[in-house]
TrEMBL record:
This is Actinin, alpha 4. Keywords: Actin-binding, Calcium, Coiled coil, Metal-binding, Repeat. It comes from the Eukaryota. The keyword Repeat applies. Residues 34-139, 148-254 form the Calponin-homology (CH) domain. It comes from Cyprinus carpio. Residues 784-819 form the EF-hand domain. The lineage of its organism: Eukaryota, Metazoa, Chordata, Craniata, Vertebrata. Gene3D superfamilies: 1.20.58.60, Calponin-like domain, EF-hand. It holds the Pfam family Spectrin. One of its GO terms (molecular function) is actin binding. Residues 434-468 form a coiled coil.
Length: 889
């Protein structure tokens, strides 16, 4: 009990030897000799009067040794000491005193510098020293309070008894008693009806002291051994005189020790119950907070509302990373701590013979594990959805850009085509012009057919964007619809113009074959160049080195065709050059450009130059992408190297922990030390996990979605790491609970090893086995019968989980062989405090118990309703029974 501080034990010599330095004390303060003489004389007379005699002068009356021997017979309980010598001679007196001193020495008292001659000669200091030695041996030495005895025990007894009283602080046996309040507090604590303590004043010590001395002499049969004025007027009262007088109070009130012991038992039981209540409240709050966090988090993880842009989805991915790195780890620790607290609470309840703790509905460990499993399921699905959404948006952005490029090229090509197809120039054209228009129209139709694939590609891309739920699908659809409608209109107009030209074809002469040949060869070549430029500017997306190398190979193949294309260009240009040569040779003035095509030699050369410029740009883009893929491949290898090392490491550590917990090498403390060192080595491995998390973040930022170099994913390693931390924490908690059980139940190391050996024999899985295996184990231990088995299962498996843990097995075995506090013992303790009554009052509880535990009992005890009940009577029997049964306590 923290408010009572035990005195510092004496070191070096025994207490008796240190207290025998009485002569030195008297030399320090002569006033103490007067106090000792009065106190010792009164103390001796309180015992000698039982033999019908008294003393007046302590050194004179003990000189012949007769009354000294009589005093020793009375206080020691001996029938007779050796027969004294009745002679008047000095030798007779010395012999009698020696017999008395020999008797004192036979009681284990070492007499220092005290001889029979000094006593016979009337040496006051020696006589007082001898009497003090007798008082120490027979009145003080046997005092024992808790783990202290003699002076320390007497001081602790005074401190405990006077602790509730204001202005009283007993720290010694001199100045702490000068104001007289401590004496009055001792009397009031045991006989409150004798003293009105509240009327005493600290500034009136003489009145206080005389009041205590008179009450003690009148009602407690304790003679007045001190003088109030001597105590008040002395700076430091004599310690031995105070101790002698206070020891008389101790022996007078020794009968109250039985009630004090009973109060201690109740305090112990109530303290255990209060601690368990605090643990239950802490578990309920922690479980409630964790379940609330899981309840709030799961809807966020189950939200699958997609974002429109890549930036928004990447922000969601970054939020998810923060959740995994910042928000979840503390909750993992809380969950682990919750299980440890629950196991520790159940162990303490079993050790204190209390019913198992049943959390509120929905807050069992199994409920929390279920909610956690659901959280992890939602978490895994959420990450997969995020990555799929990012892939989808990346694909959508690529398709949308491709759609815009192809649509822009097509719209640029169709610009002015409707106006060209609707003009009526053939109505006023000459035959040669008509033929030229017809050939030109054929070239246009060839060009139109070549663009059919592009229109189909545009429509296919728009359809794919719709199927992938592109956020800007309405504008894409509108543009695609416009292109398709325009394409249909061009088809109709092309057919209508052809019919018009064919109606007049018979009237036209054939036109220049060279122009026609130029047009026919220039059109596909121009279309090839446009396609080449489109392909060279086309965006690409790859995910590995093989894909980019495939594109580089295809590009190299395209470059290998450029010499042949250049020859075709030169051939087409040669046709135009031939036309110019013939016209110049024959003096023909050409009227404008080639009537069969709008493709001029200048446009061909310009596009060819454009192609020549795009080729090295394409080379550079492909090489940059190759470098990026090589960097991605390095990131894959870097992650794989770490993962392939960490994964087996975690698996090996899990296996080693399981082996350590089963093998039981050394004592439980050795195992606990080994496991904590093992736990520290695991914690020190955490930087490797953090480094792997950093590599994983780089991989995700690089949008790498696969890794052929390892079968481990970050998710698997995170789960393994969390399981490893949880397993080592649980294993350490199991060993701590085993130590707690061993110490509380007094189980030896050999017994614990025997329990583990028996448990391991039937244990098919680590640290628990099903009820059937447990039944076989009980049969091997001598238990039989289904009813007996059902009773035992109710003890070791109160939650009906169907499995028996090693901790429950130890609790059962220790319970079968040891004893604990019972309700009957607590009832018996309350009955002592109540003075053998069937009820107890609030006043009695407050007097015998510490304030907090007294109020605890008063608040929870039901009123007593028996036939002998009085006003304010409390039922301590039902309260004690409830401590060990089903109740709200």
């Amino acid at each position: 009990i923290t408010q009572w501080q035990k005195p510092t034990p004496l070191v070096g010599r025994t207490y008796m030897e240190q207290e025998n330095d009485w002569d030195r004390d008297l030399l320090l303060d002569p006033a103490w000799e007067k106090q000792q003489r009065k106190t010792f004389t009164a103390w001796c007379n309180s015992h000698l009067r039982k033999a019908g005699t008294q003393i007046e002068n302590i050194e004179e009356d003990f000189r012949d040794g007769l009354k000294l021997m009589l005093l020793l017979e009375v206080i020691s309980g001996q029938c007779r000491l050796p027969k004294p010598e009745r002679g008047k001679m000095r030798v007779h007196k010395i012999n009698n005193v020696n017999k008395a001193l020999d008797f004192i020495a036979s009681k284990g008292v070492k007499l220092v510098s005290i001889g029979a001659e000094e006593i016979v000669d009337g040496n006051a200091k020696m006589t007082l020293g001898m009497i003090w030695t007798i008082i120490l041996r027979f009145a003080i030495q046997d005092i024992s309070v808790e783990e202290t005895s003699a002076k320390e025990g007497l001081l602790l007894w005074c401190q405990r008894k006077t602790a509730p009283y204001k202005n009283v602080n007993v720290q010694n046996f001199h100045i702490s008693w000068k104001d007289g309040l401590a004496f009055n507090a001792l009397i009031h604590r045991h006989r409150p009806e004798l003293i009105d303590y509240d009327k005493l004043r600290k500034d009136d010590p003489v009145t206080n002291l005389n009041n205590a001395f008179e009450v003690a002499e009148r009602y407690l049969d304790i003679p007045k051994m001190l003088d109030a004025e001597d105590i008040v007027n002395t700076a430091r009262p004599d310690e031995k005189a105070i101790m002698t007088y206070v020891s008389s109070f101790y022996h007078a009130f020794s009968g109250a020790q039985k009630a004090e012991t009973a109060a201690n038992r109740i305090c112990k039981v109530l303290a255990v119950n209060q601690e368990n209540e605090h643990l239950m409240e802490d578990y309920e709050k922690l479980a409630s907070d964790l379940l609330e966090w899981i309840r709030r988090t799961i809807p966020w993880l189950e939200n699958r509302a997609p974002e429109k842009t890549m930036t928004e989805m990447q922000q969601k991915l970054e939020d998810f990373r923060d959740y995994r790195r910042v928000h979840k780890p503390p909750k993992v620790q809380e969950k682990c701590q919750l299980e440890i607290n629950f196991n520790t609470l159940q162990t303490k309840l079993r050790l204190s013979n209390r019913p198992a703790f049943m959390p509120s509905e929905g807050r069992m460990v199994s409920d929390i594990n279920g909610a956690w499993h659901k959280l992890e399921g939602a978490e895994k699905g959420y990450e997969e959805w995020l990555l799929n959404e990012i892939r989808r948006l990346e694909r959508l952005d690529h398709l949308a850009e491709k759609f815009r490029q192809k649509a822009a090229i097509h719209e640029s090509w169709t610009d002015g085509k409707e106006a060209m197809l609707t003009q009526k120039d053939y109505e006023t054209a000459s035959l040669s012009e008509i033929k030229a228009l017809l050939k030109k129209h054929e070239a246009f139709e060839s060009d139109l057919a070549a663009h059919q694939d592009r229109v189909e590609q545009i429509a296919a891309i728009a359809q794919e964007l719709n199927e992938l739920d592109y956020y800007d699908s309405p504008s894409v659809n509108a543009r695609c619809q416009k292109i398709c409608e325009q394409w249909d209109a061009l088809g109709s107009l092309t057919q209508s113009r052809r019919e018009s030209l064919e109606r007049t074809e018979k009237q036209l002469e054939s036109i220049d074959e060279l122009y026609l040949e130029y047009a026919k060869r220039a059109a596909p070549f121009n279309n090839w160049m446009e396609g080449a430029m489109e392909d060279l500017q086309d965006m690409f997306i790859v995910h590995n080195i093989e894909e980019i190398q495939g594109l580089i190979t295809a590009h190299d193949q395209f470059k290998s065709t450029l010499p042949e294309a250049n020859k075709e260009r030169e051939a087409i240009q040669a046709i135009q050059a031939e036309v110019q040569k013939i016209a110049q040779y024959n003096g023909i003035k050409l009227a404008g450009n080639n009537p069969y095509t709008t493709i001029t030699p200048q446009s061909i050369d310009k596009k060819w130059e454009k192609v020549q410029q795009l080729v090295p740009q394409r080379d550079q883009a492909l090489q940059e992408e190759l470098a990026r893929q090589q960097s991605n491949d390095h990131l894959r290898r870097q992650f794989a190297n770490q993962a392939n090392m960490i994964g087996p490491w975690i698996q090996n550590k899990m296996a080693e922990i399981g082996r350590i917990s089963i093998e039981m090498n050394g004592t439980l403390e050795d195992q606990l030390t080994h496991l904590r060192q093992y736990e520290q080595s695991i914690i020190e491995y955490k930087p490797n996990i953090d480094q792997l998390e950093g590599d994983h973040q780089l991989i995700q930022e690089a949008l790498i979605f696969d890794n052929k170099y390892t079968a481990y994913t970050m998710e698997h390693l995170r789960v393994g790491w969390e399981q490893l931390l949880t397993t080592i924490a649980r294993t350490i908690n199991e060993i701590e609970n085993q130590i707690l059980t061993r110490d509380a139940k007094g189980i030896s190391q050999e017994q614990l090893h025997e329990y583990r050996t028996s448990f391991n024999h039937f244990d098919k899985v680590r640290n628990s086995f099903p009820s059937e295996e447990f039944k076989a184990c009980l049969i091997s231990l001598g238990y039989d019968g289904d009813a007996e088995f059902a009773r035992i299962m109710g003890i070791v498996d109160p939650n009906n989980s169907g499995a028996v843990t090693f901790q429950a097995f130890i609790d059962f075995m220790s319970r079968e062989t040891t004893d604990t506090d019972t309700a009957d013992q607590v009832i018996a303790s309350f009955k002592i405090l109540a003075g053998d009554k069937n009820y107890i009052t609030a006043e009695e509880l407050r007097r015998e118990l510490p304030p907090d535990q007294a109020e605890y009992c008063i608040a929870r005890m039901a009123p007593y309703t028996g036939p002998d009940a009085v006003q304010g009577a409390l039922d301590y029997m039902s309260f004690s029974t409830a401590l060990y049964g089903e109740s709200d306590l």
